[in-house]
Amino acid sequence: MDSLASPAELRRVLGSFASGVVVVTGDDDGTPVGITCQSFASVSLDPPLVLFCPARTSGSWPRIEASGRFVVNVLASDQRALSDRFSTRRQDKFAGLEWEDSAWGPCLPGSLAAVFCAVEAVHPGGDHHIVVGRVEQLVAHRDDEPLVFFRGAFGLTSGAG
Asked: Which domains does the chain possess?
């Protein structure tokens, strides 16, 4: 193990770890902003902390960060279209989309849960930021199957083989 893995090898091997998919939303001075993220995790129960990792190249994250708060919308298995919508660089990702406003940012309809956070810390993490959020409120909307990303595709059997 003398050499570092190539980015392609790292992606292939780490793709063996299934992850849920979330859309992190916020408010940019009255304009809703959001990004799809697969790097989301619980950090601590006391104090209640979570983390997610937006790319350094994200145009949306600095707009969310400026408000100091955000919403993590946990996507359900039937919300692939929302994941796709918020993973693009399109200007108005909310165009034609119904959503509910909150003090932390937009809540997406049909999500499994919403985690309302204040930005606790932002750390450098290579080509990403590591954002730690202090959980201020949470809501479980429905009990259903999550949207899962595994081996480069959506679903637990996707991309396998």
From this structure: 20-154 (2.30.110.10)
Residues with Cβ within 8 Å of 62's Cβ and at least 6 positions away in sequence, in order, are none
SS3 111: coil
Give the torsion sign (CA, 8, 9, 10, 13): positive
If one compares 122 and 90, the residue with the highest pLDDT of the two is 122
State if pTM tops 0.85. yes
> For residue 3, what pLDDT is reported?
59
Q: Token pair 């193990």 is at which residue?
A: 1
* pLDDT at residue number 161: 42
- Per-residue pLDDT of 12-44, as tens digits, reads 887 888 889 999 999 999 999 999 999 999 999
- Are the C-beta atoms of residues 14 and 92 closer than 8 Å to each other? no
Give, in degrees to the nearest 5, the angle at Cα 123 between 40 and 27: 65
At residue 14's C-alpha, the angle toward residues 13 and 18, to 5°, is 120
Per DSSP, helices labelled H in the chain are 7-14, 61-65, 80-86
